Amino acid sequence: MSNSASPDALLGPADIRELAAALGVRPTKQRGQNFVIDANTVRRIVRTAEVRPDDVVVEVGPGLGSLTLALLETADRVTAVEIDDVLAAALPATIEARMPQRADRFALVHSDAMLVDELPGPPPTALVANLPYNVAVPVLLHMLATFPSIDRTLVMVQSEVADRLAATPGSKVYGVPSVKANWYAEVKRAGAIGRNVFWPAPNVDSGLVSLVRRTEPVATTASRAEVFAVVDAAFAQRRKTLRAALAGWAGSAAAAEAALVAAGVSPQARGEALTVEQFAKIAENKGAGQ
Question: 187: annotated binding-site residue?
Answer without folding.
Answer: no
